Amino acid sequence: MSEHVAPSRLARQPVGEASRVAEGVYQLKVPVPLPLVFVSAYLVEEDEGWTLIDAGFDWPEGRAAWEAGAKSVGCDLDRDVSRILVSHYHPDHLGAARWLQERSEGPVYMLESEIAHAHRVWDTDRTVGELAEHLTLYGMDPHLAKRAAKGTRTRLEMPDEILPLREGEKVALGGSEATVIHAPGHADHQFILHDEGRRLLFAADHVMLGLTPNVGFWHDTEPGPLARYIRHLEKLRGLDVELVLPGHGPIFHDLDGRIGELVSHHDERLEVMLHELSDTPKTPLEVSRRVFRDDLSLYEHCFALAETLAHLEHLSSNGRVERTENGVVRYRSIARARPRNLHR
Question: What pTM was estimated for this model as a whole?
Answer without folding.
Answer: 0.94
